Input
Amino acid sequence: ISAAHEGVVGDLPGLIATLRKASLNPTIKLLVGGPLFEHSPHLAQEIGADGIAGRGLDAPELARKLLAI
Output
């Protein structure tokens, strides 16, 4: 999930909860990134994300670590 500004923060916990509930994978890992999380990394944990990648280029490595691949 990528977010650019604080205007969407209020919607993200519900979105993450919905994605987890709808997933057939009980161990789904949800990553967040984008300018919002680069400037406010603490928000990732507050909204229920499993990880944060400040830049899109960092996301594959973070995903590998979370999935222990």
Q: What stands out?
A: The mean pLDDT is 90. Residues 4 and 53 are 13 Å apart (CA to CA). The longest helix spans residues 12-22.
